[in-house]
Amino acid sequence: MDGIRLAACSAAGAKVSATDAAQFTRFMRYVPGGHPQLLERLATPPQLDALRAEHPCDASEDFSDAQILDTMLGKMECMLSTGRQVTLTTMLGGAYKDLGDLLLMQYDSARAWRSWDAGRRMSPALPNFEAVNKFEADLLAKNPQFF
Fold first, then answer.
1. What gap in Å lies between CA 22 and CA 32, rounded to an integer?
2. What is the pLDDT of residues 7-35, one digit of tens each?
3. Is the dihedral of CA 61, 62, 64, 70 positive or negative?
4. Residue spans per domain, the chain
């Protein structure tokens, strides 16, 4: 790809050295858009267009407990097949909210607030932060001298 040899195979297509396998694995894991580049080498543009038309990207944003795995798999599949970067800010915002909750339970309020603030910057409309916003408003009302 782009002048870099990905792997070397025998004429029979059998053995691949451990070094080549590791290099290929690194390419597939860490090169943004690597999977579509490989698909383009293995299929013609009409074949790729037909494949992508037959299997459109799942645009679900349902991160509820029952659907989170399907949503994440759909987003990863879309990224792998098209090379488009997917935004996972909703999920990451929720993760920062949960991390903040855990930090607060450990009496680490400064780091909890930093985590919540990071999550709110990523996903300002995420309903998970309603409790945090209310908690913050209550603290401000009761203790304005600290804000």
1. 17
2. 555 556 556 677 777 776 666 665 655 66
3. negative
4. 18-82, 89-146
